[in-house]
Amino acid sequence: MDGMRKVECPFDRTGESLGNSVELQHVNLRVPDQALATAFYITGLGLTRDPYLMTGLDNMWANAGVSQFHLPTGPAQVLRGVVGLVTPGRELLLHQLHRARRWLEGTRYAFAEAEDHVAVTCPWGNRMQVHAPDAGRFGRINLGMPYVQLDVPPGTLPGIARFYEQVIGAPAAMREGALQVLVAAGQYLVFRETDAPQPPYDGHHIQLAFADFGGVHARLAARGLISREDSPHQYRFIDIVDPEDGRVLFQVEHEIRSMTHPLFRRPLVNRNPAISNNLYAPGHEALMPAMPPA
């Protein structure tokens, strides 16, 4: 059309494409003892027990920004990998971890400082890497779960990438020697190959939400991969396969929800663990999951 001119775009528009997976809502790990779980997740890590749901003795939901740990009572489950967390500051975190020791002696609980994180082990052996906020690395997350890293056998990363790209519709790319799969804004499943022996899969799970809920279901069902039909809003699968030959590459249960699920993007309460009855400032009880404006 006459008079039209091309407008140059100064932004990387592809960098803002999310893909089909739009939420990493929780990691589910059974715990044998709710009191020890409280000492670790609430006192040690400084997370917040959900005040509205699962408030009894048979389960606990621990809020971490927009994500959660689900901790039902039962034989301990151990993630074959590492959960990445961001909390507001290392000094406060270390204070909390030292304070939690009194309740966690005699378990597998441990923590150690590294250059860019604090490595923490829960009473039953689950590993966490807790980072300070870093806009260059994790975006504007002030409190949250930017990644879940899974340790997978050697030679499986190309097939895992094909599975998430072709079956799930989630962008996958190699970065820093690992496969990063974008599953929500600023949140990734990270697959890292290891020669170390891995324990048998024990049933722990992660929960994602898909925009193309039905399309992914059809592709999984065609391959015989649906493991459970929960409700109109939710199904599950366990096997990650190579679409080229159907070979099972890794197992971890994925609880998949639709964007019409009643709990999709439910607002979560996050407390400020720096506030106590002895160190109190009115109006500062809540902690924002995102950094303030730049």
Question: What does this 3D model show about the protein?
Answer:
With 294 residues, this protein is of the alpha+beta class. The protein has one domain (21-258): 2,3-Dihydroxybiphenyl 1,2-Dioxygenase, domain 1. Helix content is 18%, strand content 32%. An eight-stranded mixed sheet has the order 2-3-4-1-13-16-15-14. An eight-stranded mixed sheet has the order 6-7-8-5-9-12-11-10, covered by helices on one side. Helix 1 (34-44) packs antiparallel against helix 2 (90-104). The radius of gyration is 20 Å and the shape is globular.
Draw up the topology in text:
Layout: E1 21-28, H1 34-44, E2 48-49, E3 61-64, E4 67-70, E5 81-86, H2 90-104, E6 110-113, E7 118-121, E8 127-131, H3 135-138, E9 144-152, H4 157-168, E10 172-175, E11 178-184, E12 187-193, E13 205-210, H5 213-222, E14 226-231, E15 234-241, E16 248-258
Parallel strand pairs: 1-4, 5-8, 9-12, 13-16
Antiparallel strand pairs: 1-13, 2-3, 3-4, 5-9, 6-7, 7-8, 10-11, 11-12, 14-15, 15-16
Helix pairs in contact: 1-2
